[in-house]
Design brief:
Layout (H helix, E strand, L loop, with lengths): L1 H23 L7 H8 L3 H13 L3 E3 L5 E3 L1 H31 L2 E8 L2 E8 L14 E3 L4 H22 L12 H14 L2 E4 L6 E9 L5 E10 L8 H14 L5
Antiparallel strand pairs: 1-2, 3-4, 3-8, 4-5, 6-7, 7-8
Length: 253
């Protein structure tokens, strides 16, 4: 019985994808009967699946009863291409900064209350810091994360604090609300932030934000190194690299 249920669920997904493909083939909104004929599905089945897709924002129904792709699909597509573009644009600058400083460089984006590492340029030193692409870290323990919170302002910071309760990862983690709020706001004003062994003992980071053509935060750039090798003189170089990547994304300073 369980196998039948799984098979039925997969069949519904296949039919939903077929309907999305059918709608995408037409430049204008499409009638129910045409979609039914295109996919070979009964009209009632087509209608039922379309309304589930509508509920999830993947399809929209116009007043005249015609169907078109929903805004959520567009948002997902834009996000995908933005991240791909960000990685391809940023990597040469990341590699240049890595070679200049001799330490690992990371590219991150925000998803909810965490950062996701989406690209890296790893140092060739025997002892180096390496973040796994796809790994996640809470905002309040990372340099870039604190900048992202600072960019959101007081309400964003307080809301994050309330949602997460600021769990400590090391003895240096900023787990007191007032301390974190002050740190995030000050870092955002300065244009850079530090991670002083807040996520991991013996690891220090310098982070900056990357902006897109609309002026929105597109991601973050950071240099990670064993804390004894990190140098504050690098801040200017990290800021410069972040600005260069932002300029390539269309942001005008």
């Amino acid at each position: 019985m369980k196998g039948d249920e799984n098979g039925s669920a997969i069949q519904v997904i296949d039919r939903a994808v077929a309907l999305l493909d059918a709608i995408a083939r037409y430049p204008d909104p499409v009638r129910l009967k045409i979609l039914s004929a295109e996919t070979g599905l009964h009209t009632s089945t087509t209608h039922r699946i379309l309304h589930s897709l509508i509920d999830n924002g993947l399809v929209e129904r116009e007043p005249n009863g015609y169907y078109r792709l929903g805004v959520r699909l567009l948002q997902m597509s834009v996000r995908l291409h933005t991240n791909i573009d960000l990685r391809s644009i940023a990597l040469p600058y990341m590699e240049k900064l890595r070679d200049q400083l001799g330490e690992s460089v990371n590219l991150t984006i925000r998803e909810g209350d965490v950062l996701i590492y989406i690209e890296k340029a790893v140092s060739n030193k025997m002892m180096h810091v390496q973040q796994v692409v796809g790994s996640r870290a809470p905002l309040h323990v990372t340099a870039v994360g604190k900048l992202m919170l600072g960019a959101g302002g007081t309400e964003e910071i307080k809301s994050y604090i309330k949602r997460t309760n600021l769990p400590a990862y090391t003895r240096n983690t900023l787990s007191k609300p007032d301390a974190l709020e002050s740190e995030c706001k000050n870092a955002f004003k300065l244009g850079y932030a530090l991670d002083n062994e807040e996520a991991e003992i013996d690891v220090g980071c310098i982070g900056v934000l990357i902006y897109d053509s609309s002026g929105s935060v597109a991601g973050g750039l950071s240099v990670s190194a064993p804390i004894e090798r990190r140098r504050l003189e690098w801040i200017e170089d990290v800021i410069k690299t972040g600005k260069e990547i932002s300029a390539q994304l269309g942001f005008a300073y």
